[in-house]
Design goal:
By secondary structure, the protein is an alpha/beta fold. The protein is built from eight helices and seven strands; from the N terminus they run E-H-E-E-H-E-H-E-H-E-H-H-H-E-H. It has one domain: NAD(P)-binding Rossmann-like Domain (Rossmann fold, 3-Layer(aba) Sandwich). The longest helix is centred in the middle third of the chain and has 29 residues. The protein starts with a strand and ends in a 14-residue tail after the last helix.
């Protein structure tokens, strides 16, 4: 049994992961910006944690006590063309998806080193290795996260700490539906958005429970790989990306654009 801290446990993948790990007998420290959203979770500890606030992170990690693992899950997305995406929104995504994940990892790692090892698992995305039109800002935040995580894997492996990047494809978490979209009625990229809306139907969803099971499986492996695609679609699209020459942009959808 391990003591595991999860960020972003109020909904979606984080909530499902908290439940899955608790069912498997782990001590779960579930965290969210609003701790009241965790009231109905049957976990060991519930804490307030805002990954964009250093003081909040420090308080939560101190209150969590000795940890064996971190599941860095908190994150959001948006849709907008790179040409016109509000820079404040890009900064917000990086603060949450990239710097927020790094901030919590930095707070947890000294304790893991002192205990002689542990696990750090980042919930990334297939968009940490490829891009989709209108999702460039989100993909950039995940590409940056993957660079940090891969570097971290080399640095902290010396201390017995394993680092894993989980890469789900399309997840029925509601996150995409909640994502803000920055496209006006006369936007020159509106026809592209309409094509994308039709093309997305060709890729199947996986459930938040699928991702939660993959998280738990990875944490329980003796030697987890650095990157783990989750779902057949994720495996297929990442393989296609790897087979595409670096001299040309990879197109996940056959668009007329």
């Amino acid at each position: 049994m391990s003591r595991i801290l999860i960020t972003g446990a109020s909904k979606g993948i984080g909530r499902a992961t908290a439940r899955e790990l608790a069912v498997r007998g782990h001590e779960v420290v579930a965290t969210a910006r609003d701790v009241r959203t965790l009231d109905d979770l049957s976990v060991d500890t519930r804490l307030t944690l805002d990954v964009t606030d250093q003081a909040s992170v420090d308080r939560a990690v101190a209150a969590a006590g000795d940890l064996d693992a971190l599941v860095s899950n908190a994150g959001e997305t948006l849709r907008a063309p790179v040409e016109s995406v509000p820079l404040a929104e890009v900064e917000r995504l990086f603060q949450l998806n990239t710097l927020g994940a790094l901030r919590v990892a930095q707070a947890v790692l000294p304790g893991l080193r002192a205990r002689g090892g542990g696990r750090v698992l980042f919930v990334s995305s297939v968009l940490g290795r490829l891009t989709i039109p209108l999702s460039g800002a989100y993909a950039a935040s995940k590409w940056a996260l993957e660079a940090l995580a891969e570097t971290l894997a080399v640095e902290v492996g010396h201390f017995g700490i394993s680092v894993t990047l989980l890469q789900p494809g399309r997840v029925s978490s509601g996150g995409s539906e909640r994502a803000p979209t920055y496209l006006g009625d006369d936007d020159p990229y509106l026809p592209l958005a309409q094509q994308l809306a039709g093309a997305r139907g060709s890729f199947s969803f996986i459930t938040v429970e699928d991702v939660a099971a993959a998280v738990a499986d990875a944490l329980e492996q003796d030697r987890p790989p650095l990157r783990i695609p989750v779902g057949a679609s994720a495996e297929a699209v990442l393989a296609a990306r790897a087979a595409t020459p670096e001299t040309t942009p990879f197109r996940i959808y056959p668009l007329e654009w």
